[in-house]
């Protein structure tokens, strides 16, 4: 019976305090919406990719690809052998598709950028001859029948402003073939094309010339005759191409079309899982901030109901009844907050999808499945119940008579001694781990610093109430001076309840801790790049691919024709094997390397002989190689090429682990399809104007579409911009935590106004104006916000500086503190304090004195 009565009391209490209910539900919504958004967004992207891959390899019964992804491909001789045995094996159609990376010029002559989506050239195969039954449909024009004719997918043609009959050029992303002139003779519709994908299809003979060395092809697709299943054809083909070799000894992978689709889904699933973990990590941050807001909210609500709960105790309700009553209200609030949070999460996910679809990711409508619904509601209820449990337990232990005498203030500040001591102990241990991390390299340092960060944050949670009184009081004493009595009153309100002030400020603290850590990492990386370029780059200009990708090896030859270029050095690279692992070798082609780069030799000569190997000092330490050491690299075709270590240089990011001589490189990369240039360094002749040299270089590389000319500052900025883009993404995600923090301050102040209604009425009655009352609340909010920001900056620097120091093992040897970001953060905190107080201050100023006093 008692439980039924308490249930009715709880429900009527919720219904009677609608504003309080709305503010409480709102605090839960803030904590759950991003969790729901993360689940919905990743499910949506996963579903869009699955829809695309469901159309891949349709009609393919068996596909042969090389087991080693860095090999030159599948021998064409093997395709001829399978074609000769097609009746015996049960092969219906056999398709050899020559393909490779390619960039097509838009109507204005600039290269068509894909935003990260594939841009490939391939072979046009008539639908009636194609193995893949869902490949494409020719929707306009005709098929290419001669070299120089291409068909283009419709989405790419629209972006490039090309149509049937348009003349343009295509640059190949790798290989020595120069850009070629083409005519668009047809448009195709491709169901597997993502938002930014480009597919340029050539006539077969030209595709073979462009994308093959005449010996290898990327894959062979086959369909089966009637009566032969996909698995039967796969097993028969596997027995032929691998000659009984299995497992790691197999030279080729033979898969059914279904396996191809599932493997592609799995490869994307790996990326999406990483993406999901990142989103969920930020969701956890938002949830952590939201948890403090929910706890703060319930602490205030329970405090406001002290007399009500005491009366229930006096008329027979037990402590358990009181706890259950509060938890019942929390469960209802959590359910409502979870449902509303789910709706808001759908909106956030839709905004994220709109942003990413413009960058080339597929978009096929939102996927709101049961995991999103369950996660939002479950998180909402569980977090709310946990947040309400401590206030409920505290309320149930207050003796009825004492509670009836208490004001509506939350039961105090209470003794902070035990939690402060615990926080101090954890802080000392965390600082000790941070110091230990300074004397350890590699992963060990990161683990120590990560553990220290966790301990320090917990220490801040425990110790912040004790810190809030002196720190907020000190901030108040400084900022109150221009405001007189109003400023003093605001300071008194801010320090009156240290638990509440600390919990309110912590929402801002945790966001700023991460902002400062990420800002310090980004600033240090950018400073290291700038210092490295300034110290090591002697070239006047750098020619690199868009997005720092590879270029045609013909770019270097074109740059060498520039009349005012004194020294041109191209860096070519190729994939090779070393100790059964895949790696990359680079070779400098052209003039003296020392003309364009600063090389600090520790041993040996900087001259790169034809069969020599120069290594970095870091490589010597990690691999144990010394001067005169014999090292054998293996080409992707299985050719062993021995080289001798003739020089050891100081670690240099521009040179990497090693550079190899030209003759050895040619033996390791005999196929033109395996050779590419990733950068060309240019030193101009003495007395030549930089603008004149730039004009000559831009003219020389213009036909290659993806090649871009940069001076030193632009080259540094190209890397800095990548870091800035990453930081912008992280800051955008962190922005949600900061928004939650601001809304949490609003929520806390709004409830505080409700709690102090009688006090506000008394102040108004004795002469305080509405403007003075608003100013009091503005200042109170500002004091708390600046306290949270100061705490966040200090903790962020305490963690961020050792973290950067621990990365010296990976070449980050300079620490740069982002002072503009830190100063801007503190100023922004003051602004946030004022903004967060606008609505609560307005509400407080509308309080009617007599009504408030007599309540």
From TrEMBL:
Protein name: FtsX-like permease family protein
Membrane topology (UniProt): Multi-pass membrane protein
Transmembrane segments: 274-298, 326-350, 370-390, 421-440, 446-467, 505-525, 730-754, 777-799, 819-839
UniProt keyword Lyase, yes or no: no
Subcellular locations according to the entry: Cell membrane
InterPro entries (alphabetical): ABC3_permease_C, MacB_PCD, Macrolide_Exporter_MacB
Keyword Transmembrane in annotation: yes
Species the sequence originates in: Gordonia alkaliphila
Annotated ranges, domain MacB-like periplasmic core: 22-239, 501-699
Occurrences of domain ABC3 transporter permease C-terminal (ranges): 281-400, 733-849
Major localization class: membrane
Taxon lineage: Bacteria, Bacillati, Actinomycetota, Actinomycetes, Mycobacteriales
A Pfam entry, by short name: MacB_PCD
Keywords recorded for this protein, A-Z: Cell membrane, Membrane, Transmembrane, Transmembrane helix
UniProt record similarity statement: Belongs to the ABC-4 integral membrane protein family.
């Amino acid at each position: 019976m008692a439980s039924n009565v308490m249930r009715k009391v709880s429900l009527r209490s919720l219904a009677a305090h609608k504003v309080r209910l709305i503010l409480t539900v709102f605090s839960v919504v803030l904590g759950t919406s991003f969790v729901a958004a993360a689940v919905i967004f990743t499910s949506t992207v996963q579903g869009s990719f699955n829809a695309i891959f469901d159309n891949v390899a349709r009609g393919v019964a068996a596909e042969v690809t090389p087991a080693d992804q860095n090999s030159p491909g599948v021998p064409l001789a093997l395709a001829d052998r399978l074609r000769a045995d097609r009746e015996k094996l049960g092969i219906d159609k056999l398709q050899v598709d020559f393909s490779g990376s390619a960039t097509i010029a838009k109507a204005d002559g600039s290269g068509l950028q894909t935003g990260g989506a594939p841009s490939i050239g391939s072979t046009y195969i008539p639908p009636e001859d194609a193995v893949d039954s869902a490949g494409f449909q020719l929707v306009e024009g005709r098929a290419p029948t001669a070299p120089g004719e291409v068909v283009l997918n419709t989405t790419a043609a629209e972006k490039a402003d090309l149509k049937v009959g348009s003349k343009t050029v295509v640059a190949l992303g790798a290989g020595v073939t120069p850009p070629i002139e083409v005519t668009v003779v047809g448009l195709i519709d491709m169901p597997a094309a993502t938002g930014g994908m480009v597919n340029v299809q050539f006539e077969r003979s030209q595709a073979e010339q462009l994308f093959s060395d005449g010996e290898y092809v990327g894959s062979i697709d086959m369909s089966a005759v009637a009566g032969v299943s996909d698995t039967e054809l796969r097993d028969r083909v596997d027995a032929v191409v691998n000659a009984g070799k299995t497992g790691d000894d197999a030279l080729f992978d033979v898969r059914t079309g279904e396996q191809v689709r599932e493997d592609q889904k799995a490869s994307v699933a790996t990326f999406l899982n990483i993406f999901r973990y990142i989103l969920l990590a930020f969701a956890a941050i938002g949830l952590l901030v939201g948890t403090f807001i929910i706890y703060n909210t319930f602490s205030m609500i329970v405090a406001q109901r002290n007399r009500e709960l005491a009366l229930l105790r006096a008329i027979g309700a037990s402590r358990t009844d009181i706890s259950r009553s509060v938890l019942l209200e929390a469960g209802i609030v959590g359910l409502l907050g979870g449902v509303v949070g789910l709706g808001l999460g759908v909106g956030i996910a839709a905004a994220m999808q709109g942003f990413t679809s413009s960058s080339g990711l597929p978009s096929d409508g939102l996927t709101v499945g049961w995991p999103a619904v369950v996660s939002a509601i479950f998180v909402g209820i569980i977090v709310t119940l946990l947040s309400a449990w401590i206030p409920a337990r505290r309320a149930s232990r207050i003796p009825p008579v004492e509670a009836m005498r208490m004001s509506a203030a939350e039961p105090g500040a209470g003794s902070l001694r035990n939690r402060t001591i615990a926080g101090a102990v954890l802080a000392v241990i965390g600082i000790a781990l941070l110091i230990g991390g300074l004397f350890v390299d590699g992963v060990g340092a990161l683990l120590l610093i990560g553990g220290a960060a966790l301990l320090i944050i917990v220490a801040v949670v425990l110790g912040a109430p004790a810190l809030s009184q002196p720190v907020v009081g000190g901030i108040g004493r400084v900022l109150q001076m221009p405001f007189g009595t109003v400023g003093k009153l605001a300071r008194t309100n801010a320090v009156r309840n240290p638990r509440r002030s600390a919990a309110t400020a912590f929402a801002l603290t945790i966001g700023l801790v991460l902002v400062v850590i990420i800002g310090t990492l980004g600033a240090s990386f950018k400073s290291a790049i700038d210092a490295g370029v300034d110290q090591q780059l002697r070239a006047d200009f750098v020619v690199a691919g868009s997005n720092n990708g590879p270029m045609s090896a013909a770019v270097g030859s074109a740059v060498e024709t520039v009349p005012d270029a004194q020294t041109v050095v191209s860096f070519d690279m190729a994939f090779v094997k070393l100790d059964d692992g895949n790696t990359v070798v680079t070779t400098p082609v052209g003039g003296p390397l020392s003309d364009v780069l600063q090389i600090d030799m520790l041993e040996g000569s900087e001259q790169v002989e034809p069969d020599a190997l120069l290594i970095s000092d870091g490589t010597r330490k990690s691999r144990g190689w010394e001067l005169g050491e014999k090292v054998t690299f293996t080409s992707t075709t299985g050719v062993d090429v021995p080289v001798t270590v003739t020089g050891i240089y100081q670690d240099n990011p521009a040179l990497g682990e090693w550079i190899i001589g030209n003759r050895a490189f040619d033996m390791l990369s005999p196929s033109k399809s395996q050779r590419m240039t990733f950068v060309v360094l240019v030193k101009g002749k003495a007395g030549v104007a930089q603008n004149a040299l730039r004009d000559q270089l831009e003219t020389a590389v213009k036909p290659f579409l993806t090649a871009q000319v940069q001076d030193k500052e632009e080259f540094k900025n190209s890397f800095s911009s990548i870091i800035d883009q990453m930081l912008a993404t992280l800051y955008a995600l962190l922005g949600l935590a900061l928004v939650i923090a601001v809304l949490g301050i609003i929520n806390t102040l709004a409830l505080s106004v409700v709690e102090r209604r009688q006090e506000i009425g008394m102040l108004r009655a004795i002469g305080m104006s509405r403007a003075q009352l608003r100013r009091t609340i503005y200042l109170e909010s500002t004091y708390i916000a600046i306290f949270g920001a100061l705490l966040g900056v200090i903790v962020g620097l305490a963690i961020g500086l050792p973290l950067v120091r621990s990365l010296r093992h990976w070449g980050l040897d300079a620490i740069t503190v982002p002072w503009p970001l830190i100063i801007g953060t503190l100023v922004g905190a003051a602004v946030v304090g004022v903004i967060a107080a606008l609505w609560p201050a307005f509400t407080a100023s509308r309080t009617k004195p007599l009504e408030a006093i007599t309540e």
